[in-house]
Amino acid sequence: MNHSSSMKEAQVSIPELFRCPITLDLLTDPVTLCTGQTYERSSIQKWLSDGNLTCPVTMQKLHDPSIVPNHTLHRLIDRWLQAGHCYDIGPHVAELKHTLESNHYTFKQKLQAIKQVRLLSMELPNTKENSIQSGFFELLLKPLFGEEREFSQQLLEFIEQALCIATELMPLSELGCLDFVIKEDNKFTSFILLLKEGTPMIKLSLCELVKTMAVSSPSMEEAKEISIIRGLINLLDHEQDVDVSGAGVRAISALCLTQSMVENLVKEGAVDSLVAYILRTQAAEKNWLGEATTALELILGADGGKESLMGNSNGIRALVKMVFRVSDHEGSESAVLGLMRLCCESKEAREEAISVGVLTQLLLLLQSQCSGTCKTKARMLLKLLTSM
Question: Where is the U-box domain (predicted)?
Answer without folding.
Answer: 13-87
